[in-house]
Amino acid sequence: MTPSKTSLSKQRRACKSFRADSAYHATGIAICLFFLAPFVITFLASFRHGTEARLAPLPPWPTNGISIDSYLSLDTFGAGIWQHTINSLLVSVATVVLTVAVSLLAGYGFSRYRFPLKNVLFVLIIATLMIPFQSILTPLFIILAKLGLNNSLLGLTLVYVTLQLPFSIFMMRNAFDAVPKEIEEAARIDGARDLKLLVRVLLPLVLPGVATVAIFAFLNAWNEFLAALILLSSNEKYTLPVLMMAVRAGRLGAVNWGAVQAGVAVMTVPCLIVFLLLQRYYMRGLMAGAVK
Amino acid sequence: MSDTGVVLTDIRKSFGSLEVIHGIDLTIAEGSFVVFVGPSGCGKSTLLRMIAGLEEVTDGEIEIKGRNVTDLDPSDRGIAMVFQSYALYPHMSVRENLAFGLKMAHTDPAEIERRVKAASAILKIDPLLERRPGQLSGGQRQRVAIGRAIVRKPDVFLFDEPLSNLDAELRVSMRIEIARLHRELGNTMIYVTHDQTEAMTLADMIVVLRDGRVEQTGSPREIYENPANTFVAGFIGSPRMNLLNAEWVGDGSIRIGKSRIATRMDDKLMAPGDKLTLGVRPEHMNVVVDDEGTLRAKVDFYEYLGGTQFLYCQLEDGQAVTAEYRSPVPVQAGDILHFRWQADDLRFFDAAGLRLTDVVAGIWLCRV
Fold this sequence. Notes:
The structure holds two protein chains of two kinds.
Chain A: H1 3-46, H2 50-54, H3 69-74, H4 81-112, H5 118-127, H6 137-147, H7 153-177, H8 181-189, H9 194-205, H10 207-223, H11 226-231, H12 240-249, H13 257-287
Helix pairs in contact in A: 1-13, 4-7, 4-10, 5-7, 7-10, 10-13, 12-13
Chain B: E1 4-15, E2 18-29, E3 33-37, H1 44-52, E4 59-64, E5 67-68, E6 79-82, H2 94-104, H3 109-123, H4 138-151, E7 156-160, H5 168-185, E8 188-193, H6 196-202, E9 205-210, E10 213-218, H7 220-225, H8 230-235, E11 242-250, E12 253-256, E13 259-262, E14 275-280, E15 286-288, E16 295-304, E17 309-315, E18 320-325, E19 336-340, E20 347-349
Parallel strand pairs in B: 3-8, 3-9, 6-7, 7-8
Antiparallel strand pairs in B: 1-2, 1-4, 4-5, 9-10, 11-12, 11-14, 12-13, 14-20, 15-19, 16-17, 16-19, 17-18
């Protein structure tokens, strides 16, 4: 091949790869914009001026300067935004802690121990995923009332943990199944037993699974509306989604759109933080067990 | 100090109603290198795991250095184990991997550091101490796994097919390293493998297992030269020993197919018509020119290995024989050859596959 031909083909290749790269990045940017737009619109709209905020939400950005009126007016609903945010945080964090603790131990048990009816029990737990939640709301309400846990955040947390467990146990069993048995045996020979074995050797290896379970538990508990609406009855116990319902309903027929946007922003931030913190593990967790 | 490293007494193991180890008695001298060898599913790994304490013993007793350890936890038995899959802790650095067992035992940090240093010097892994297992090659990982065993200063080292995951070249060098380690440390080592080269080269004593029973124990030379039965004869040695169906015809002769071959066996021990199995190693099959009292065989195909050749032949009655052939005269597939052997190189087995030495003890048959 002559030198000119070589440089020509090099040029052509460079041109081709440039085009491919551009197309790749352009598509990426377009998808990014598509996903980011709702967040941007919500956040911008939540900073509109008081009077402007009561108008229809178009255009969504502040036209008369930035103000935190919407956030202040949000605080006038229910028992105040802080109370409801704390309620939501309490319920969500407790749900995460309990779900992770129970599913970690259950997943370990299902993965490593042999006991009678193990598979039947496991299938039974998984099968509960198929029961529509709404259909058991009434029995749940009655049970909680009998236990004296109706209209309490603890009762709501227990309901969330129960709903979250089938998927979480399934997830954690997969995570433990993916850890080679020899590692556990080596640790036993090294003298790690029971809880020490679980915490020092196995937990770091199933961390992706734990992260996945934690994210799901947090998001579901944070966003859940129906159970919270039905099982909680006093104003100061409501979680954020229930508060948002009240905000959205408006007062005397007038909807404060600014407050709605501010509420949405408040609700979005923790979800974003949790997801961004754990996403690295989360992706690995979903794939664990798939490719062994 | 007792000179018995490990004593197994009537060890049995059942999974449900299925018994897989059928009462094994074994005494392993302290400081010896013992290799459990046998085909897949013979129970060699299960036996090792029972010694390690990773598998419960259904019945029987295990003693290590005179101490009954049957019901002790693995970490209290004075053992260390090297796994086939290395089983390193992926989230810890090499240093942490080595130190983990000592930390669990609340060893003094200065002592941990000293032992880690000593072990990494023996295995030449000092430059790797800060790396994670994921950043190491297979050979390096296996070194770390061995290092993790060394720092524990165990009474007994247990190896479960430690070289199976390595490539051929690395396997040879690691094999030599393990032999060197045994010489330097002098601990009792129990090694499970299905690779008979590893068994023959490393062992002071080989334990041949089949279906959860010990078929024979002995030094590599004993096992190779005086196999106790046709199974051991066929299992140890590559290519395997030729085991030919023969019939006693009287007058000290046997018949293999159509060939009648004279032996020096005592006539009183057999009745004409008795079936027996003749065992002869490929390297003892000598090609000769005359056809009187020899075995005629047709060459099916041959393997040229440089220093030697293996001829895979068929006797007239269809039995297969393998012969090692070192003559410079070329051989082609389809050639008819005549084989003869030294009487001393023959091994006889009865119809049940048991060696006939015990029966005919005292006569010329074998050099025992």
